[in-house]
Specification:
This protein is an alpha+beta fold. It has one domain: ACT-like. Chain A, domain 2 (Alpha-Beta Plaits, 2-Layer Sandwich), CATH 3.30.70.1150. The chain is 31% helix and 42% strand. The protein has 2 helices and 4 strands; from the N terminus they run E-H-E-E-H-E. A 4-stranded antiparallel beta sheet has the order 2-3-1-4, with helices on one face. The protein starts with 5 loop residues before the first strand and ends with a strand.
Length: 83
Amino acid sequence: MATANRIAVVGIVVMDRGNAARKVNEILSEYGDIIVGRMGIPYKERGISVISLIIDATTDEIGALTGKLGNIKNVKVKSAFTI
């Protein structure tokens, strides 16, 4: 039985842009086919960058993406499934 795709919102906070941004972008490129939209904002006053993603994928694919991102030092990830 095929697994249905879900729509999810993923929030990523990068606390050490100099060391983590390259790896974050590599992973996002790897999963580019499931990313519907992406917005990134540098929050200079706090010294962080915030990225929000809209994802259309299976729960397994979303879990794989967020798991890889969450394993990067100084990167925090949270996801919310909508439908």
